[in-house]
Amino acid sequence: MSNNILTPPTIYLASRSPRRVELLRQIGLYCKIVPADIDETQLMDESPEAYVTRLAHEKAAACWQRLPVAERAHPVLAADTTVVLAGQALGKPESDDDAHRMLQALSGSVHQVHTAVALAFAGVIEVVLSTTMVEMMSLSMAQIDCYIASGEHLDKAGSYGIQGLAGAWIKGIEGSYTGVMGLPVYETAVLLRKHQLIVL
After folding, report:
1. Within-domain flag for 199
2. Is 80 one of the annotated active-site residues of the chain?
3. From CA 171, how far away is CA 167, in angstroms rounded?
4. Tens digits of per-residue pLDDT, 16-28?
5. Cα–Cα distance between 157 and 19 in angstroms, integer?
């Protein structure tokens, strides 16, 4: 029986997100988590697209810097996601009240989800951006309260996760479902193939 614990990680992931680990595993990659703790404050007059692109780049760079020199030959992958409504970025909720405010705003909306993916490999950091349009049904206060009580909103951009209970609210998307989850698999695979890190 093979034991992947003894195998060097295929990739370092600058994220604690179990969803991203799962999506990487889906395309045959094993990863070691090396969280990148950076300041995620949006800069003044910074567009949401520029914001997530910058954070993904900074996370990849921070993770690479944390690696021992002998490990820096391994690729580092980082990602950042934000939900955008009427040009305003909605990050992770700071409290249940903040989540309630976000979900009320998103109720009945068509909004964007931007996810930037950065790959640090061979001394270069490349970033790609995935943008998906999401249409959400109108929500009652009872639905929002019930969702927040579930705890699923925690640590999620825009205070919801499409892959969980909130998936029942999504009328349609135009773009990448996995991008809304937090890691657009197609764009990620394009980066990895470019550097011959995967075959599929």
Report:
1. no
2. yes
3. 9
4. 999 999 999 999 8
5. 13
| DSSP label of 42 | P
Alpha-carbon gap, residue 192 to 147, rounded angstroms: 36
Q: pLDDT, tens digit, for every residue of 149-181?
A: 999 999 999 999 999 999 999 999 999 999 999
**Structure pTM?**
0.91
Alpha carbon distances (Å) from 121 to 86, 169, 196: 35, 38, 11
- Kindly state whether residue 153 falls inside one of the protein's structural domains: yes
Residue given tokens 């394009």 in the structure block: 190
The C-alpha angle with vertex 159 and arms to 155 and 164, in degrees rounded to 5, equals 85
> Phi then psi for 187, rounded to 5 degrees?
-65, -35
Task: CATH number of the domain at 155, please.
Answer: 3.90.950.10
DSSP strand pairing (170-174 vs 124-136): antiparallel
User: Domain range for residue 82?
Assistant: 4-194
Q: Which residues pair with 133 in a beta bridge?
A: 112, 174
Here the tokens at position 172 are 């349609």
- Please give the tally of structural domains in the chain: 1
Active-site option among 37, 39, 45, 80? 80
